[in-house]
Structures are given as structure tokens and as C-alpha cells.
């Protein structure tokens, strides 16, 4: 979870066993929405790298698997927020989420960090350097 400046404020890792990558992305999105509701957030942008899921959540008709559709239908939970936006981001643009997914594949427990875990330090450093590099003179 990042703040409006892009700084990591919390991280969560939930190990899931799903049939497809698309289903995993759908479950991750559902859990992110439930987590944001639990924290009583009102204005949220959800980023994901599953293009069809993001399109589906933005009310665009797309062909997604039936398991994923059954996950995405209840995602109408997003009406809880004053403002919720679902945006597509290439995996390469969010290495932090990718690192969490890789770690979750070998984990058996749900973990929430209020400080970045050590395995994310290098990823976060590279992430911030790429953001700084995007603004010449910064």
C-alpha cells in the first residue's frame, strides 16, 4: 500500500493456490479492496497488471474465466469508497508487488507489514530511483 507520494506504507502477503494467473489476480484485487475497507480508506487507486481484470472492474465487457468472473462480480464492494479507481500497470512498473507475489508463492501464512520487510529494500530503492529519474532536475 502506497501513499499519495508513492511511498510504501504497508505491505500484505497472502498465499493463494489458484488455477490460473488471472484467478490469482482477481483474488488479490478482492483482498486489496477488503483490506482498504477494513482500514476505512475512502479514496483509493487500485493498480493491477491483469489487463482484462482491470477492464472488467471498469465496467468494460471482456472475456474472463468463469472462476475469475465469480470473484470480480462481488468486487462491486468498491461502491463503499467515495472514489475508487482501477488502473492497469505493467508488471515492470511495480516490482514491489511482483516481489510480494514471488514471496507469497513459498509462504503458508498471511503477513501484514507496517514497515517494509528486508526482502523489499533493494526493490524499493530501485523503484524510488526510477521515479526520481523520471523527473529531471529532482
TrEMBL record:
<protein>
    <recommendedName>
        <fullName>RNase H type-1 domain-containing protein</fullName>
    </recommendedName>
</protein>
<dbReference type="InterPro" id="IPR052929">
    <property type="entry name" value="RNase_H-like_EbsB-rel"/>
</dbReference>
<dbReference type="InterPro" id="IPR036397">
    <property type="entry name" value="RNaseH_sf"/>
</dbReference>
<dbReference type="Pfam" id="PF13456">
    <property type="entry name" value="RVT_3"/>
</dbReference>
<dbReference type="InterPro" id="IPR044730">
    <property type="entry name" value="RNase_H-like_dom_plant"/>
</dbReference>
<dbReference type="InterPro" id="IPR002156">
    <property type="entry name" value="RNaseH_domain"/>
</dbReference>
<dbReference type="GO" id="GO:0004523">
    <property type="term" value="F:RNA-DNA hybrid ribonuclease activity"/>
</dbReference>
<dbReference type="GO" id="GO:0003676">
    <property type="term" value="F:nucleic acid binding"/>
</dbReference>
<feature type="domain" description="RNase H type-1">
    <location>
        <begin position="19"/>
        <end position="104"/>
    </location>
</feature>
